[in-house]
Write a structure and sequence with these properties.
Number of helices: 22
Strand content: 5-15%
Shape: elongated
Structural class: alpha+beta
Distance between the termini: 13 Å
Mean pLDDT: 82
Number of strands: 11
Length: 741
Amino acid sequence: MATFLYRLGRLAFRRRHFVALIWVALLVLAGVGAASAPAAGSTSFSIPGTEAQKAFDLLEQRFPGMSANGATARVVFKAPAGEKMTDAGNKSAVEKTVKELKSGSEVVSVADPYAGHAVSKNGSIAYASVKYKVSGMELKDSSKNALKEAAQHARDTGLTVEIGGDALTAAPSTGSSEIIGIAIAAVVLVITFGSLLAAGFPLLTAIVGVGIGVSTITALASALNLGSTTSTLASMIGLAVGIDYALFIVSRYRAELAEGREREEAAGRAVGTAGSAVVFAGLTVVIALVGLSVVNIPMLTKMGIAAAGTVAIAVLIALTLIPALLGYAGRRIKPMGEKSKLLGGGRPPKNPGRPNMGTRWASFVVRRPVAVLLLGVIGLGAAAVPAASLQLGLPDDGAQPTSTTQRRAYDLLSEGFGPGFNGPLMIVVDAKDSHDPKAAFTKVGDEIKGMKDVVTVTPAVANKAGDTATITVVPDSKPSAKTTEDLVHAIRDKGADIKRQTDSKVLVTGSTAMNIDFSQKLNDALLPYLALVVGLAFLLLIVVFRSILVPLKAALGFLLSVTAALGAVVAVFQWGWLSGLFNVEETGPVMSMMPIFMVGVVFGLAMDYEVFLVTRMREAFVHGEKPTQAVVTGFRHGARVVTAAAVIMIAVFSGFIGSSESMIKMIGFGLAIAVFFDAFIVRMAIVPAVLALLGKRAWWLPKWLDRALPNVDVEGEGLRTLSSADGKDADPDEEKELVRA
């Protein structure tokens, strides 16, 4: 591995024009594809195998003309104080609005509030339901503007008017905080390298990689039904790992220069050593993201594969484009320890013989391993305590900021019709095998009316064939409440008795039931997912470190950091601690996909730091140093760079906390705090403490397993056998062989 990557690095350094041209061509090609691709529609939200999905599929078959995927809007009206919506003037204004809404070219139907009994009991609030032919993401701007104008015309008459539903769906925005995150990353790189040019390379290559990845996702969005969240998450992860991977290779290059090697040789050795760590670190991230497919939720699978593709591009760019750019930079990239003239180059270093911060910290840890280990474990354990109260769910309009019309419409409907009105349950009765379908429909309605926490049960609406009907049930509590979930399960349990009595199937669906099933499926998949991802990565790390205990320690440390991060997410987004600081306007259940997605991403990133830091330690151990001294050596060479990488990741992820979409905000916070815990507590404190306690046993591997495992040579041991002649131009035949490979 190291020898192959060494030759690849030298080839890219020498053939830099060719390498740069390839990446520029790929960026242009992806950009053209994204610009010419049709606009993406809405992401299909399907959960194969669940009752809610089966009911939805049945509705598609039995009610073919109901436009189940079409956008909906609820135009909510509230009368001025002291008036009612049934007053003549207010009623006339609403009827004009309904007539105006019906004129839209994409409108399927508009329900009159007065004909459909959509006026609250006290008469102060009413709503009109609008159904469209296409989804919210596909809805034309003209239709959205017509909806807003109709609402404004009603407001001009003195009514309070708000619009709920998904008709006004817009792509999430991240705000200026994302740019601030990148700016912080740039500052950290300048401080780390002491050179503006060297600092610019990781940023440039990361932007190129994310540009190619996101443009490719945009180009394929319509064909593969990818949503806007997919590209946002891919850019978040791709940007973070792209900067970090380039950071490690440039740092190793400068270290090789400091040892007196020629620039081409230094580039080859940097890619051969740090590049090996990049390959395996990237592979763990890809395994974790692709592993999301085991959940069997198409949307989550697509998100994972798209992000994994962006990570793979980041790895390839780090291995090829970085050495090519180093070739262009020439002598303007200084050896480790030297700064550019602009940042104080040429000045004598302060305290040249003094050990660096990484050396001093590692020396302290190996002298006090038990105290450091206990302090780290207890601290993370305390942070993890809130995770015991974790509640999962999916957000509705009630989780949006109060500044949005969707949230204000949600609150008005709750005020006029009760909190459960925003999350009605749709009961689908399949009476195809029943001898008396009408009696079955009536039986189902009567049974549900007598159940606890039910406010309203509408009469059954049958299809043309008369063998299937829908019944709408309004719960007493809001969609995300535990009592609503209990009601869904109670209706499903009651359905078994009804089937025995009437030979008809009762299925519960609707957005609320879909969310409940979605959360349950993610809960059920979490342990198998953990076993798969951690198991595969564990085997991979055994190959990398040629040890049993080091990969085991890495996995246990990850569990500590991810549990502590989940505890922090619960404290902020569920309990409301420091919610104002992070602009969390509405607390509630944690996003259903948050734990499993965070587990996947954080595991990959945690293994990044494990590979980058511990390979330096193993490299020193393999070259003859004692175990504790190898730990100190690993920190002397790697602590500064790993610290910079962690700060950069935290800055990039924190930039997404400013997103207008709650899922992106929550994931950005969760990943940022998880990287903090894992990098600075687990990898910087617990890992050296455990390795100091284990000593030589940390690197123990059964002889039979040592013989069976392939030798990937991540430490670059094979490079030590290269003679100084390798610093000359490579043999043309060798170059051709490498290009073919």
